[in-house]
Design brief:
This protein is α+β, with helices and mostly antiparallel strands and 231 residues long. Helix content is 32%, strand content 30%. The chain has one domain: Pnp Oxidase, Chain A (Roll), CATH 2.30.110. Strands 1, 2, 3, 4, 5, 6, 7, 8, 9 and 10 form a 10-stranded antiparallel β-sheet that branches. The radius of gyration is 22 Å and the shape is globular. The chain starts with 6 loop residues before the first helix and ends with a strand. The model has no long low-confidence stretch (mean pLDDT 91).
Length: 231
């Protein structure tokens, strides 16, 4: 007995659903745009800053977007997109509701990994290391720069908790807005930030024929070590 696949399965089976592998011409064009090889003597934080500046000029939206990976109580990985809000020699800073899934997971297991992927540049950066809370002063200073509606939203949202419907959230936003009136909106006690101190930073560049360039910086007492990896 023959079985006819539903139309949506037939569509999903079409070869044009997944982009084709690059052609020889595609690789040659990409090679022309490639810059000089990665410098293993560079300071990784400074190099990251250079790549971020290039991404700001090239990416359509949110060049500071990064995937944040944590693990839950069972050791099952969690990953989501968040926004980088600061970076210096101390690490990479982001903010969140501390009662959210990532907030709870980082409190229980303060280690994480970050991934920046800039499609327009064909580059990515991976960062791994321990995570510590930012100071109250840092969190207050950043919260004060947020749009007022975002500040009120931080009070209204029980992030990662079940939500009956969109109206329930909008109702809480209105209630919080009325509660603060025209006054200053303080930072909620359940909202703050984390700093990931990098123990390793890997820079990846697309190169022709999948022979990509990978350079890993490892943190040591005297500074950084470097190691190149096969693609």
């Amino acid at each position: 007995m023959s079985y006819a696949k539903p139309a949506y399965i037939r569509r999903m089976s079409q070869s044009d659903l997944i982009p084709a592998s690059p052609t020889e011409a595609d690789y040659e064009a990409a090679a022309e745009k490639a810059g000089p090889p990665l410098n293993d003597k560079a300071d990784p934080i400074a190099l990251f800053g250079e790549w971020m500046e290039a991404a700001k000029a090239s990416e359509v939206n949110d060049p500071n977007a990064m995937a944040l990976a944590t693990v839950d109580a069972e050791g099952l990985p969690d990953v989501r997109m968040v926004l980088l809000k600061d970076v210096d020699t101390g690490g990479f800073v982001f903010y969140t509701n501390l009662t959210s899934a990532k907030g709870r997971e980082l409190a229980a297991n303060p280690k994480a990994a970050l991934l920046f992927h800039w499609k327009s540049l064909r580059r990515q950066v991976r960062v791994r290391g321990p995570v510590t809370p930012v100071t109250d002063a840092e969190a207050d200073a950043y919260f004060a720069t947020r749009a007022r509606a975002s500040q009120i939203g931080a009070w209204a949202s029980d992030q990662s908790q079940p939500l009956a419907d969109r109206f329930a959230l909008e109702k809480k936003v209105i209630e919080q807005g009325l509660a603060f009136g025209l006054g200053k909106v303080p930072r909620p006690p359940h909202w703050s930030g984390f700093r990931l101190e990098p123990q390793s930073i890997e820079f990846w560049r697309d190169r022709p024929f999948r022979l990509h360039e990978r350079l890993v910086f490892g943190k040591v007492a005297q500074g950084w070590t470097t190691q190149r990896l096969y693609p």
